[in-house]
Design a protein that fits this description.
binds zinc ion; seven-stranded mixed β-sheet; globular; 10 helices; Metallo-beta-lactamase, Chain A; alpha/beta; single chain; 276 residues
């Protein structure tokens, strides 16, 4: 578990192997590459794209919840992959013999959906080798319209009786998750850059894989982040999807050495203790 500016995030993320970011407070996960036991506890999974290291664990997630008699999970998938997703589960129903119940929510870049009261998610386009989308999660609350601030209670009551809407919806971006992406995708999404927290894939940290090679694979290189350091307004950045070639101590040392001072104190590498 890591504390990302007051929000607990659990799970695992190793580039090409498996990614599963669990947000227990919101009872959801982003991607299930393989299915960690903890992920079974969350009923909602949002998938960024259909590469195996991000979606490979979905049947395990669905079947384990059914076995434990938990409510059917809800899967949010990129609209372009929704039909293939349905067929995939269909084949597994035939193989497994189980019902594998689930609810599907199709979401395309630019579309949003309320996940639970006060929590909305919007998808945005993430340029990658496969169709991919990032997500921005908003805390939504009703706030008295500013022009009514300080108005006497009987006036507010009268307006309310007359059918007037006294509040407006305030949407605060609490978390953005990049998916696998070129940095351009994040830079083109202002709410990802101003979200309180940004989980950003940074697969490569030094010249062992060059930026050009990283871009060819549709991934972010640390050089890209350094070049655009001023763009990030986030209170905390969680670096995910780090290549398995970096040992945790080595990754920490490279980040400490290479990150500009303006970012250093805000970056948390997602390196679970089992990789230490
Ligand atoms: Zn990946
Ligand atoms: Zn990928």
């Amino acid at each position: 578990m890591v504390d990302v500016a007051g929000l607990a995030i659990e799970g695992v993320s190793v580039g090409g192997h498996e990614t599963c970011l669990i947000v227990p407070t919101w009872k959801l996960a982003i991607d299930v590459g393989r299915c960690p036991r903890r992920a079974v506890n969350v009923g909602t999974v949002l998938f960024t794209h259909a590469h195996a290291d991000h979606m490979g664990g979905v049947i395990h997630h669905c079947a384990t919840r059914a076995m434990l008699r938990m409510p059917p999970p809800r899967y949010v998938v990129p609209r372009v992959k929704a039909d293939a997703f349905r067929r995939h589960v269909e084949v597994w129903r035939e193989l497994d013999g189980g019902a594998l119940p689930y609810e599907l929510v199709e979401l395309a870049p630019g579309e949003d959906v309320e996940l639970r009261r006060g929590l909305r998610v919007r998808a945005y386009h993430a340029p990658h080798r496969a169709p991919c989308q990032g997500y921005v999660f908003y805390d939504e609350r009703e706030k008295l319209r500013p022009e009514l601030d300080g108005a006497p209670a009987d006036e507010l009551a009268a307006r309310r009786r007359a059918g007037e809407r006294l509040t407006e919806t305030l949407a605060v971006p609490e978390l953005a998750v990049s998916g696998d992406t070129l940095l351009e995708g994040v830079l083109a999404c202002p709410d990802a850059l101003r979200a309180r927290r940004l989980a950003l894939e940074v697969s490569f940290l030094d010249e062992r894989v060059t930026p050009a090679q990283a871009h060819e694979m549709g991934h972010v290189h640390l050089d890209d982040v350094i070049a655009h350091a001023d763009a990030f307004e986030n209170e905390a950045l969680l670096f995910t999807h780090l290549s398995a070639r970096y040992r945790p101590a080595e990754a920490r040392a490279l980040l400490a050495e290479r990150l500009p001072a303006s970012l250093r104190g805000r970056v948390i590498p997602f390196l679970p203790p089992w990789r230490a």
